[in-house]
Amino acid sequence: MKIRMKKNLTGFALAGLMAISAVTPAFAKANQGEYLYENKYLWTIPTDSFTWDTYYSLYDHHKGMGRDAYDKTAYSIDDIVNSPLGEGMVENVANFLIYPDENDPAVYQYWEELGIKKELHDGDDQDRKWSSFVPLSAYEEENADKKYPVLFVFHGNNNPIYFIESWGYPNLVAEEEFICVMPWARNGGKTSDENDGAFLTEEVDRILETLRADYPIDESRIYATGFSLGGRSTVNQLMKHPNLFAAVGVGGQHTYGVSIVDDEWAALKETPMITMAGTCDRNNHFPYGQKGAGQIEGLNRWLALNGIDDSFTEEECIDIADHSPYVAERKLGLTSDNTCIQYYDGTQYYTANWYNDDGVNMVQAIAIEGMPHWLTGAFPKLVWNFMKQYARDTETGELIVLNQDNELQLTPETIDYNKEGTFIQSFTTDTTVGGDILINLKASTDIKSFVIKDEKGSTLDSIATEFNHGEDGYDNWVIRTSVSEAGRRVLTLVPTSDKYGEKDGLKFPVVVSEIK
User: The pTM is what?
Assistant: First the structure.
């Protein structure tokens, strides 16, 4: 291992970050008032599909992704929706919910406004299409010689890659300056068949050829991550491409891939790994010890691979989950060199870190309080912050530690219940030409008027507007309008504030039928 560190962890105060025994509230609770946020209405927007199954809405989909936790903590989708956790989960999903066509110009405009160029490659080939997200700064003349890290993101349960855009990884591209790649290719991983996932392996090779030829990539900094089946595929692709990835992230999945093949593990060099899942994940990933010997052996192999002298048995993990005096250890079912609680999205991230003899954080496991089988708003950032600390020598395959500046968030955020803005409560999703489109909403008292615009930016006539002051301190509005053309329309509600002037609009889709 080559260590090029800005800060070495050998002298790190691990004792100061030992597992915290105090229990803090998991979510922003209703007894402090309804937790309002501008994208909350997206939870109930009708959509055709998230996977190959049909779900009415994001709310319905995520309701089925959770179950009560091992410690009997109840899973509540309603508590999630009414919390900062729900706000973070829904923040990145707007395009998928509002625009069903991944090639809609509005989708590309969204990414461009974030400083990112989205491209859909081989879009006509259902099996081979893939998407890329590149920071616009890469196309500036002053960065002509700059090389950019590459992050492969593998989808779960063969979700459309358009949906996987909403996981949040592409949103980091401009800020963190890396290239994000999402292959649609069937990622297999459901059986121990040696050919399962072979197509994805071929596609990774093919995509890498294109990246090398057409994009300014840093081949020493290629990473892979995925969630659910995508997490399993991440491990499998590491095995099929030994020493290609500098670090990997495994979300909502075990850390051993389809099966544990001794020869494939033996071919690997040190590979830092972060694994994350919710305490209410329907697949019971945390605490450890619930999923059999394979789950434990997978973790033990990662520890050994990365020079960490630690291992577990099923019995030990269950004993930790049942009897540890530290809440973080109980939630994880694990002990580590440094076990602590981080705080993001208004909830607890129970975190275990293991270090090698050089004080390098090689393995990290995080259990997220109350979270179902899905990603939180902070999830992608935590995965990227861990992985970006590492690179790999392209000739020898040896791991290079770039830095260890990843700081843990150990202080809970202050939750703001008194937000300014517009909060749609409900709206008409199906109507006819000339028929009423009704919008019910709350707004802070600084909002003085609204207009509704169509896709062309033209202002629609408001048939009626009703308004009253609510006892909760917000103003209640009822707005009615209509449109004169049939089709799936995306309308924009634009508020005007006496403090800030015209604010960003909230987009919502309406299916308009011809009058019969």
Answer: 0.92
| Same domain as 394, residue 453 | no
Identify the CATH number of the domain in which residue 368 sits. Answer: 3.40.50.1820
Please name the residue that has the structure tokens 């972060």: 274
DSSP 8-state class, residue 6: S
E strands in 317-461: 338-344, 347-355, 361-368, 390-392, 399-401, 422-427, 430-432, 437-443, 447-453, 459-460
Q: What is the pLDDT of residues 275-287, one digit of tens each?
A: 999 999 999 999 9
Classified as helix, coil or strand, 91 is coil
State how far the Cα of 227 lies from the Cα of 249, in Å rounded to an integer. 9
CA–CA separation, 452 and 485 (whole Å): 15
Neighbours of 12 (CB within 10 A): 17
Residue ranges for the chain with pLDDT beneath 50: 5-31, 189-194
Total tally of structural domains belonging to the chain = 2
Separation of alpha carbons 368 and 187, rounded Å: 26
pLDDT in tens, 49-71: 666 566 689 999 999 999 999 99
DSSP 14-69: GGGGSPP-----SS--GGG-----TTGGGGG---S-SSSS--SSHHHHHHTTB---
Please, which residues bridge with residue 179 across strands?
150
Same domain, 392 and 447: no
